[in-house]
Amino acid sequence: MDSQNIFKSAITYEKKIRDLYLSAVDTIDDARGKDLFKALADDEQSHVDFLEYSLNRLDSAKDFEVEKLKPILSSSINDDVDHMKKKIPKQMLGDIKRALNAALSLEIETSRFYKKAWENSKGQIKEIFKKFHEIEQSHVELVQIQLDYASKNGYWLNFMEINMED
Q1: Cα dihedral sign for 8, 11, 15, 16?
Q2: Is 77 inside any structural domain?
Q3: What percent of the chain is predicted at pLDDT more than 90?
Q4: Nearest to 112 by CA among 139, 142, 77
Q5: What angle do CA 6, 70, 56 make, to 5 degrees?
Q6: What is the pTM for the complete model shown?
Q7: In which band, very low, low, confident or very high, does the pLDDT at 153 lie, cut at 50, 70 and 90?
Q8: Residue 153 CA: distances (Å) to CA of 19, 139, 142, 144
Q9: Cβ pair 135, 47 in contact under 8 A
Q10: CA 148 to mean position of chain CA atoms
């Protein structure tokens, strides 16, 4: 697959995830859930913007400004997990678990796409897709954390909080 097609496919993935998050904003009853999905949608929109910028640069044979690609949401949430945990409602309203499951599936699929694109690219394009893979992996972790908490399955930050067998 050539670079233009890779970028176009990436834009499709990002828009699909962004649209899922925007639809969740309309579906979820809880204000904190809405805020989370809105922040995720904004982050994905920043990815769409960067990919469209990159596609235009590719068309004009100009270098990319990779430093323009910065994780908006991921870094702030990863820095303050305890604060994030306090913001998750004890009683999830609406169908947040369904939305989180769908989001997790899309984030995993997109992360795999970026990993493959990264492994099959060269130069600055390789660097761009490596960065996207890292960002999407952090989204996978974030959505998994939210889903674990909403499901009350005993996991927090991918670790078992309690073990009923000990």
Answers
A1: positive
A2: yes
A3: 30
A4: 139
A5: 40
A6: 0.73
A7: low
A8: 28, 20, 16, 11
A9: yes
A10: 16
